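Practice problem: Peroxisome assembly protein 12
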Amino acid sequence: MEFMSDISSGADIYRPSLFELLAQEKLRALIQPAVRYILSVYAQRYPRYLLRIVNRFDEFYAVAMLLIERQYLKNYYASFAESFYGLKRIRLINTKIDLPEAAPDVDLQKLRNSDMWRSLFFLVGIPYIKTKLDDLYEKVSENARVRLLGGTFSRVHNERQLNCKERVHRFIRNLFKILYPWLNALYHGSILLYNVLYLYDKTRCYTPWLSLMGIEVRRMSAQDYFERRLNSTRNNLSTKTLLQATRNFLSIILSDLLNFLKSLLQMSIFFSRFLEWWYSSEYARRPGIENRVDVPPPDIIAPDPRGIPLPESPNVCPICTNLLTNTTALPSGYVFCYPCIFSYIEDYERCPITLIKVDINELRKVYNPSA
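Answer key — structure tokens:
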């Protein structure tokens, strides 16, 4: 993975191809949903310890990636995904002679502390802000409500019932709904433009953020790997005082732990592919008594006294008190009319009967064959 062939047509063998750069970007984008899924699964088993982390997953993931990316930038001058693909970051130095032999000084190319913090902002800060803005736009624009239920169920405010503060707040919401799609298109369009320019060797940066920071992504050379091992050896030997020895020991443990993440990622990819093959093969399809497992039903969640009371008939929606139409179930096990529960969950984000936290994506359609 670290030594890749030069598939570009240029003479610079250390210039990564656009496919390598997009591959590491894709890897970085896949880590977050994978971690979210794992935490969600284990949060059902250990809600006392993991439920708060799942509820604040964006902040938790941003802090974790800040620590990881900081360590990789400090030790390897690359992000976690870039280091996985054998890439590094250097300062963008323009040479007067455009020749491979006229390379700038290696010390001048190394990232400074300010370059690392700027890189952290664009690696961690910008994706976090983008995620929050996407969630805010989805909530403000009511896209899911109008797309699934139609314009009849959209919120309609009466201007006479709004005071001055509420009108200003509504104006800001409407302005955000109008401007954010254009800003989002500009965000993705600028990245696409730089990708095309990089593909045709018109720029040395494949994203506008690298161009703003004055940083270029390059392939690691054999000298880079040799210096990495040499620096790790020097850190192990430089133990003049007890404080320095303790700091070096903790630094070595943290560095080894982060290096293990690369190996763990490779093993996880292999293991997931193996499981995919196994469950799609004939071995997993063979019937047998040992494969039959009687799964007990889940425990019934009792209604909360502060919630909506249950109707006498199970065919009545607890919210609108009418007969169930388009029956939809929550993770708590109770069923409602889809328009009723969709509007309620979007407003309160909890089950109206048990008051447990519920997300819009957890709504499940209940199919009735006799209907």
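Discussion: The radius of gyration is 27 Å. Students who identified this feature from the tokens alone can consider the problem solved.
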